[in-house]
Fold each of these.
Amino acid sequence: MGMALMRKFIFRYLIPRIIQYLTIIFVGITVTFIIPRLAPTDPVEAQVSTMVAMGSSLDPESIEAMRTALTDLYGLSGSPVEQYFTFWGRLFRGDLGPSLDNFPTPVSSMIGQALPYTLRLLIPAVIISFIFGNVFGAMSSYYPENKALKVIEVLGQVVRSIPYYIVAIVLLVVFAYFIPIFPFSGAYPLGTRPDWSSPEFILKTIEHAVLPAATLILIGFGGWFVGMKSLTSNIISEDYVVYAETAGLRKNTILTQYIMRTAILPQLTALAMVIGTVFSGALIMEVVFGYPGIGGLAIRAIYSNDYSMIMGITIYSIIGVATAVFVMDLLYPLFDPRVRYQ
Amino acid sequence: MISIVRDLLKYDGRFRLAVIFLGGVAAMILLSYNSPYDPGKSFVVPWDLPPSQQYIFGTTSRGQDLFWWLTFAVRNSLFLGVLTAIISRVIAILVGLTAGYRGGWLDRVLMSLNDTFVVLPLLPILILLGFLLRERMSLFYLAVILGLFGWPFDARLIRSQVLSLKERSFTRTAIYSGSSGFWITIHEHLPFVLPIVFATTINNILWSIGMEVTLSILGLSDLTTPTLGTALFWANQHGALVAGIWWWIAAPALVTIVLFLGLYLFFTSINEFIDPRTRLRLIGG
Amino acid sequence: MKKHTLTRRDFLKQAAAITAASALPPQLLALHGNKLLAAQAEEVAPGVPRNQCLILENPSGTVLPADDFNRWRSGYSGVWVCGLQQLALDALWYIDPDAGVDGVWDNALAAEPPIYNDDFTQMTVKLREGLYWSDGVEFSGDDLYFTVDLLKNTPGMGNQGLFERSVDHMEQPDRYTVVFYLKAPNSRFHAAFTVRWGALYIMPKHIWEQVEDPVAYTFNPPVSLGAYTLRDFDPNGQWYLWERREDWQRTSLARLGEVSVKYAMYIDPGPSDKRVLSQLAHELDVIHDITPEGRITLARESPTSVGWFPSFPWAHPDPTLPAVIYNNEKPGLDKREVRWALTLAIDIAQVALASYRGAATISAIHVPPTGMYPQFYHQPLEPWLNDFTIKVGGEDYKPYDPAAAQRIADLARPSLGDLVPTDPDIIRQYIGAGWWKYDLQAAEQLMLDAGMQKVDGKWALPDGSPFTVPLMSMNPESNPTMNRAAAMIVENWTAFGIDTSLDSQANPWPIMSAGEYTANLAWTIETWGGHPDLFFFLQYWHSRLYVPSGENAAGSNSMRWRNPELDRIIEAIEQISFDDPQGVELGLEFCRLAAQEMPITPLMAYNVFTTMDTTYFEGYPSIDDPYTDPVPNWGNTKYMFVKIKPKEA
């Protein structure tokens, strides 16, 4: 790349995209600051009333005193605008504040503990279903008469249409209860402490991840399949594919080099965005399998109106997805030489 | 039109299956208007009966005839899915085509907006909105909210498709021959974009129905309206799985599969028919 | 819709059908009572044999952060009930919700009950000698003095407000005596120290006196005053493993018997269905709560599973009263006639069936029908209830239906067969006595009496504006029964022409407290259970503590009920001591007043389907040996650990 081209790339392509990237994060985080504050109840009351409802005998005045104390502790005494600026100030220092439901534990340490479990499960599962879905999807449009592929197609769509919850519970009951070949709950056995230096423990965690991952893979497969199939259905009759066939290139080469390579682009963009489904997909699965990840953390935080936790998780997600999309955007021209940096 | 349907019925097994499936769903929806039972009433039939000739999907632990109850559920869920899809399709096509074709600052603004919607984690927001709206969170509101959130994935997909199309020879030819941008967009690009729109429409309907199921399982939707999600919610609330009332879970799952598979086969079949290149293979053999 | 009502024949058909239906899958489940993979090893943890380790459900689920054992900080955390307040901490006194091991009242750390002076401005506490912390330090008055002193002077700690406001100073005449000098007379000051579910637990002074910031301190590892210490726990909060102390004889529990269970593990067992499957596989000894259907499955398929009642309705009735709570400030609901009309528009039999499949213990009056309360209140009031009248259309109307429980039993029998008792005395004990009539005509007349009008088949306010009564319900993950009851009431009210809808909330409590609701199914009445004193909830109900809707209520008066007669009763209770026999008289007066005014509609006891597996252990509490409440998050369940014995040593 020459100097001029480089400069053009930086000013015309990179900088606008960085600005866009930062804007997205700013707007996203601001929205997530506002929404929980619109909820009808406040986190202090959630704590106090839970104690009263749990049957703790507290006299009325000490309840009032507790409200005041918690409001001060949580730093919720100022106006929303003040809180907003404090919040950004803290955020720039990398501090997401204390969890309100689990005061004074920092939000970041709780997320830091749960996130790896979700990612360790989600990333392999998403990649596996991405690869299988796309390969079979492309094959199915290239070999439209293949019976086995048709069966796979229909099965994939059947499974995809079943709600997460049912797929998860069926896998659980069948493969952990009736035929107990996989563990029933958790990310590792009860009574065992996580020890990531022990190969035995890592094997255990893999064993525990099979069913949750299978849920995500089975459901994700059909989506990638359909996406790839519809994208490649245009390409198989393109001139260059026809030429390649006439020229006697091997079918596999045509499939991977000519068809999939072109159609994979939008799929890769979708892959970047799928990181955002960390919440919806993983949430139900984590509840069913008792997996100690981010989904469970999110639902607890929402029930207890733990603003700082909800925002913490949301911020992680926003930054994660925005970064992935941004990187994908920069890499786009590498995959498709026809699109130049504009 | 009739001849197209006849051709499809004749040559395409998938289309025949789709017609059967969707016909079944349509029949259920029609039957719901003539149901002998009010779905809001409990203990109108003996409870916990397995599927039989009299109660083809069995009865629930709340004394409801599951078949008739599901006629309302499938009607409501489909309403939700279709309304979501219409709202989000309109936005996705407009944004995707405009951004992809026009490019420049408009593209960047639209994609910023698009990407902001992509990065916002929907489920926590939906749950929080559920808290805000509480008992006012009707199926209609849910459809509108899902529609407003459900377009960015597809808008980006459409945009990237248009980006590749723009580089192709026929677009250039069209430009050299003096066609206006709008005309190119509609006549040259839309046909190539439509397969994606169709594919994403069922995705979107499915996503929307699935989102409602997730919210319902968490108890956060309008629980007294029969839907495929609230069917599972109430089955769960009555421990149907361990109580052995498997039909309360299996029947809504079956209806969901039939509905979705029907839509899927219908759209793929139509899609291939629209596309002249694949149509030849379809009927020409 | 006459053609759809159930006939007797349908019921019989159904009885046969449900037997056939349920004979299939659950039996398969049971047949496969093989071990789950996770626990195929005979050891629960390294060196912890399964048959020595009682596995209990922590109903608060996963505890996060897992390593923070500070039970004294303001606010609630699931760590309280991971075994901490049940096994490791101890308090001065315990009141049992049931009969108790050795009476309802137990002097645990205290040597005797609280000693007040005549005007209730001093409370003297005498402590037991010879009790030790798990690190070998002796427990003494220093610990009690230190605990109250620290809480009083540290904002951010629980009970800080209470002690700050009520304790003037303390004295320690000797090592085992502490005297509290109160700023104002208070005959119930000991309530803060008396465990009923939970209370103020005592801190080890020698640990906490070195702590600089008590609010941030995590008390890890916890030093124990109970019979167990923490052996290990999951950093992700899914399990806590406790081990019996070598010197358990030096704890307050040892007086009551031998502590034979060597290990106890509190776990997060997942949703209801998973808990049922876990117990079928004998991997969960004590279930806190499950769906009624899950309980029925265990009753049919798991011969080793036992509950509070030997049969229907199985569940332990907690001394808590689920009720339809009206916001007494909303237009329409501020009228007694309307609240009564809504009450008479509820078919309690259908509600009992829909919520608990009939396994409910109903109550017409405003105290829970549990523990000793039927003897204290329900039975003495029965004759009065039979003659009780309200004005309907200017005439006297008797709203009480003494046969309600019988009706529920009859309706439940077709689906549950012999499991449902037939003996009227047993039905009275298990399901309760009567309830209010289901009488839509009387309800209609009451609405008209209140000036309400019917517009297009829906009730409207006297000025013609809409009268909407959305019903909020509590729908926690642990138990669906309240939500099911609420859905049935929505159906009942809709049939009566009320514009209503179901608003189901996982955590309704803050919304209730703020008064941001119209009607609500939850509870505002909880009692001691074993002791007739009603101050446990009435302390919040005096009009001087009244807070309007929009602001947070001071405690449980979230229905915003004010009444001069109520004030008189509460003031009278404040004047007398805890054990004064006059207390029951005043309690009965309260019940009669609440029945007339109907500020909330009482429904039933909060029945908890605590289910215990006798595969490895036996000696659980039950109605036949009601020594304590088995519901495992209660602090009182420490008493189970002197009665439960491993089956093979």
Note: The two ends of chain C are 61 Å apart (CA to CA).
Amino acid sequence: MNVLTIQNLSKSFGKQTIIDNLNLSVPERSVFGFIGKNGAGKTTTMKMVLGLLQPDKGEIHVCNEPVCFGQTRTNQYIGYLPDVPEFYNYMTPIQYLKLCGEVIGLSKTEISKRSDELLSLVGLNDVTKQIGGFSRGMKQRLGIAQALLTQPKLLICDEPTSALDPVGRKEILDILYKISGTTTVLFSTHILSDVERICDHAAFLNEGKIAVTGTLAEIKALHGHDSLLLEFSADQDLQLFKKQKSIEPLLLHSEENNRELILHSRDMVSVQKLLFRVLAETGICPVKIELMEPSLESLFLEVVK
Amino acid sequence: MSGYIAFIKKEFTENMKNYRFLILFAVFLIFGIMSAFLAKFTPEILSALAADMEMTSEPVALDAWKQFYKNISGVGFSAFIILFGSCLSNEYSKGTLVLMVTKGLSRKAVILAKYTVAAALMTISYWIGYASTYGYTALLWNDNHLSNVAFAAVSLWIVGFLYLSILMIGCVIFKQTFTSILFTGGIVAIISLLGMIEPIAKFNPFILTSKNIDLISGEAVPAEFMIPAVISISLSILGVLIAIRLFNKKQL
């Protein structure tokens, strides 16, 4: 089942079209990476899902219920973490979660139980100072706690890691990964290593449309060249290898770097068959043979080109 | 409903923590106390400063109420509008409401809670100001034969709600504090200008702020205040409804 479906969504600001006929579906229990350049329309899309912005055209369904602008019915299924979450500075984390709990309509015991659980999940359980004195990383973690207070089916995070230092980033990603068993996570980012680390699904947003979408494995299989790296112990071995007649067509798409040779091809299986035959015939023993996976980065660059 | 009550608590704490209530309370209290003393001692102060100036009449209790209505309707309510002019713009600029609204807090509850708390704090401050003027006037003048003192105060208090409703509309429409305050000032100015047009002047809520002294001195009767009071209350309710309607369409 899909937690979120977006159909033919369009939105322009003045003459500038930001989202142009966008279609997207987020399957249940997935960690979904929503990838795009700065200004691609990731935040705009998310705000429309939350009913904070009015779409020009198109339909959005959350848990099979339509999203209406200005109304908040579907938001009961959603937890939202904005890119820079802002809280009431004079409150402590416990007080803020209490306010959120009361807004949702939870009972007192339920609020204190969930607050304790969530604050220890995000590592803020011992913090009693006012939110005004928090670092960005701490605010981001409190943001996750408040977003999960409703026990949402879908957690939407808008660039949760982009402003954080490496330690803060790791903490946020670990938390997101931890909760992914119980909640579907949709998070926008332009940091591709984050996506590779925790996502199982992803979509690339470019020029207001979804350029590529699917599981990470599907995306990698569909796009980009596969490459094979060979490292030789001596330069003679490399030269000898290159002189082999059957290898010649492969050298047209190759890179050479010291004693390393990288071969590019879309049909890796036949390349490998040929390679091992040649190595056996010539008796060359390379020190390393590695099948290189296409990186999301190369895909990203290919998509936004 | 739970959201409304939760947000009322939040608004109340916020107005305590950012000293908004303290300032408002102090302004009304100081002017409440000062009104009686200024009325009583201004002639003496003036004659001490300028020996050759002659005071024509002794100050009376009515002068204290003149001071009260001049100060509260001018400085008191201006302070009220300026202090609460930032009640939504702060939340807009920081984006704190987004998290509340995405948690299912209805936009109606936001406006109603903000209105309720501002109105309650204004009411407390206003009546404390009134009580201090009343107390010191009774203390300084023994022959206190004034009529409709409380009724005159109620009519000015009613206008406070109207000002707040106008301010709420301003706060919803404009993202900056300054423009919301300017908007409120503009509308209030238009209301008082309309008060000069004779055939409709007797229905104008402006009477509630301008004729209080006539009421106390006996030059006006409470009946003259009834229609403007009803109109003022109706406009206040209408203003809140308009603010809610506009806020529902507002992009946060």
Note: Residues 189 and 195 of chain B are 10 Å apart (CA to CA).
Amino acid sequence: MEKGEIQERVIKVVSNVLKVDPSMVEPDSNFVFDLGAESTQSVQLVAAFEEEFNVEMDNEAALSIQTVGGAVDFITRYVQ
Amino acid sequence: MTAKPPAQPRPPHPLESLFCPRSIAVLGVTPTPGTVPNDIFRNILTGGFTGVLYPVAPGKRSISAVPAYRYVLDIPGTIDLAVIVFPANVVDKAIEQCAAKGVKGVIVISAGFRETGADGLARERRLRDVCREHDIQLIGPNCLGLINTDPAVALNASFARKMPDHGRIAFLSQSGALCTAVLDYARGQQIGFSKFVSFGNKAGVSEVDLLEYLHADEQTAVILLYLEELSSGRALIEAARRVTRGANAKPILAIKSGRTPQGAHAASSHTGSLAGEDAVCDAVFREAGIIRVTSIEELFNSAILLADQPMPRGDRLAIVTNAGGPGVMATDAAVHAGLQIARFNGDTTQRLKAALPATANIQNPVDVIGDARADRYQAALDAVLADDNVDQALVILTPQSMTDIEDIARTVCRVADSTDKPLTCSFMGACDVADGIALLHARHIPHYILPEWACRAMADVQRVCRWRQSELETVQLPQAAATLPKYLLNGDEGYLSEDRCLHVLQAYGLPVSDHRLCTCEDEAAAFAASIGFPVTLRLVSPQVIHKSEFGGVALNLRDESAVRAAYRDMLARASAHPDRPTVTGVIVRRMIPAGHEVILGAKRDHVFGPVLMFGLGGVFVEILRDVTFALAPVGPAAARQMIRQIKAAGILEGARGQPPADLDAVCDCLCRLGRLVHDCPRIEEVDINPLIVAPAGQGAAVADVRIRLGPADRAAVE
């Protein structure tokens, strides 16, 4: 899967889970500071990424990711 | 003649942006009720804040129907105060935007800093550095927040459940969790606050800054402090002294946890400081004029009396009661707490006799008898409060079937309005007396369930009065004292030679017997003859620390030939010794007659600065640890208190027919030693052991002294 496609799908998931306009979501967006994620939404995000990409991620490592770009890189490791 | 320029308005206090903001942004608000970020925002909103409030909530259109902003930078207009509730790992981003926005005050509620370990500490330091760089006043992190009940501001920037009532008590706490309990307790007691601050990790604003601010705050009459550590000991003392004395004096009451030996040990091993020693903490508070109390209950019992009643002119108490037993209990408690039971003058007893039934007790405590109604209380209170021998009154009531409790409460309120003497009440019970107590609360007349509590509170007020009356006396120093700190700049770190020690003590007027460092036998013999016999000889050599073991001390030399023999013997020992110590000379001193041996010490603590120690010599110090501490410098009153506080003080005061020792001389030495270590930052430690004290009026003299200097850059650093 191309990284561009991964990024597109990550942005869509983030936009859906955090209920923010997709135009707000950029690679360097911080989930909390820029997109207003609450602590419980971090868990929801990880679950939604797993479902979207049909992978099972290391939860502890996944929860430590703070930005959209970080999530794209992390997921890329699983899907390639 | 030039016209006087118009007075410039006083610039606002730097902490004004925290306490009296006109606009607030809450950064990191979420829409979920019951979370800290949401509750903080709602508390400000529903608390009646009189300024403008903005939620910063990325991705949200509004919070509680208030339009939200993605970033603080997006908000139009200026922001005085930012309250940050973002998680710790993005607080630095929030602070940087606040700095760019020109925000002047920041409260960081978020936890996850110093208290979590090395990473958290690094985060906290970055936070502190940004705030310093941009001149931002920072409260927190890891705190409950701040409350200002002033109706002109009405700010509850905390996650406490309710806005407290407006009052004249300010509460500062290092513990956030304690704050919520205190607020709830105070609410139950109908106690209001002027300001309420949880300062958490105090990365920016400390208790010292807050004391300075509250000193100037017109709405605050009493300051309460809860501390877990005394990390800014010296600055706290200096600030507290300014707050608690002078024209605008305000009492400070404090609880410092860690009173037990276990807690003290933990603190001591943690900080490597005398801070862990509870006796030192007591000394800090005493020297700073802070009244240390032992419980939250005592804290508020005393605070309401200080906040709501006039200060008494003295410690003489009148008790008016309708129950003999509680009157006697109150008398015991008052005497035990150090109050005086007032002796009425003749006019008062005549008035009481005329107004009360024959069975009443017209002496203090005045018993108006169990069937008393409001008129008897009125007559008794009017009479005792008019008496010049009475400084304050305690009203006790037990609820009999004929007792008109509310009428009596109203009477007490009227009496309070017409007197300038403090009144306290104890309406004993719970249910029957509740309405009467409510009337007293409404008029801010301090009420205590038990008379003993009232007495304890009045005793704390006396401590405040005594502190205000005591002056910071100073001792007259010789001229040489002025140049001593410079003199001490020279020389290596470590122990000073004995001749330099004596020079240092003499420069501050401490009693050192006539002496000279002699470098030949003839000089020693001639000097001994000039000062009179008997004399002592002491070898001076940088390599010989333990003189006695070396044979470098000769006592009670009664003539010139004995001096010469001792001198030759000492030098012979030195030259025969395998280490070949360098001999600087021999000190010839006039022998000090026997007397009481006491120890005076001083040590520079890294938290409190110079601390003085006093104790009796020998077993009293080494085994019984019977010593007292005080922060240097001390005045004669504090020095006298140090002496009285050792358990064996009676020995010095003249036990078993022995003449009392010259305690004035000891006081003088403590004052001078205190000034010495205060003025000379290079002095790390002084040990005068012993100071030999003659009978009263005959003085004292230093027999032996050791002084240790700190690093050479110490003087420059301080």
Note: Residues 3-79 of chain A form a domain with the Non-ribosomal Peptide Synthetase Peptidyl Carrier Protein; Chain A fold (CATH 1.10.1200.10).
